[in-house]
Amino acid sequence: MGLAVLTPRASGKTIPKKNQKDVSPPDMNRVASIILGGGEGTRLFPLTLNCCKPAINFGGRFKLIDIPIANSINSGCNKIFVITQFLSASLHQHLFRAYRNDTSNSGFLEILSAELKHSKMGWFKGTADAVRQNIEYLLDLPVDYFLILSGDQLYTMDFREMVQTAKDTDADLIVAALPVKGPECKRMGILKIDSKRNITDFIEKPQDLNDIEHMRINIGFKKSKQKPQDDPQYLGSMGIYLFKREALIKLLHEDSREDFGKHLLPTMVERGKAAAHIFNGYWEDIGTIESFYHANIAMTSTVPPLDCYNEQKPIISTHHNLMGPKLTNTLVNGSIICEGCRIDADEIRNSILGPRTTVGKGSVITESYLMGNDYYISPVATEAAPKHLQIGKNCIIMKSIIDKNVCIGDNVCLINKNGLTHYDDSNIYIRDGIIVVPRGATIPDGFIL
Fold it and tell me: Average pLDDT of 269-276?
């Protein structure tokens, strides 16, 4: 870490010997987080019609970007950059509102947007290119490590443990990895490590398991209660990288390719300078409507996989300054009802209702995520977009995602009665068998799908 590069005259301390192990605890003031928040999210359409992936609402109260920011802050890493590009206005607005008063004296949260420059003109071409095009803002930062994070993943991790792994292995790059089963390998980069956690092989998103047969793990990740076919068999990259400062700068200069996972990680593995940090907790990459839906509905379970109730590790988000929810003659079971909701429905079951959600009498909401509204009354009402934003009377909504500021009329049934896996209309879609109503849509009285 920093002591190893100081001279005796500057530090007043003895320089550690070259091969002497650094036993000091991680200094998170010497770590900066770089969160990649520019994802277009085509597979999350239509939720990304008006915003980028990290700006999508999650769990009723949060946006996806809040998760990596919370993990950074709760790990003591208060120097945070968020790199943005695609449909970033709502993301910028959220970051300004949620975090403007939550920076410490030694920390900051800074937005780095795609911009036109004299030397380079054009959009970021990938994850590594996004960092490369912003390298000038990182060069003067007094840190030893850069932590590269995705803006659309769900997990709780103490990054101090990852920094400790970096100190223990002295690797230039640490890759967070978790045990995964065979079917999951097609959507992840797969690692092979030796007994010292050095990464000896890496294959990005293998489509044929025969190609990674030699990469099976046998180092004690299997859980005794699992059946053999349920055991994790491989190590998958989580897309979370911890670089030594100089190693990252040098790599971005020497390898001009665009993506960390596809291009630069294999380069570091070939150089023998990459190691793995093993993570055994909950992790979900939000890449599709299906994964987004199930991650949200899982939050309504008795013990949700992502703990949002830990006061020692809070997730900061926008404050709404609203009354608590008001429910009238409504049966509620296994559901999250956010502030400002006004519910007259018959039943809400295994669902999430975001702030300001209004549901009329006789309605039933089952296994659905209603993101709520930015206001109770639309400031610009038209014939197509009525004044009051609400779910009407006697509606049935099942296995659906209702984006923000949606108006649904009376006697509407969103139940996917024909069992469709894919459907497109101007105001309603089906993806992976899940009904999705996009932001600002209006569904007329009596509509049935």
Answer: 91
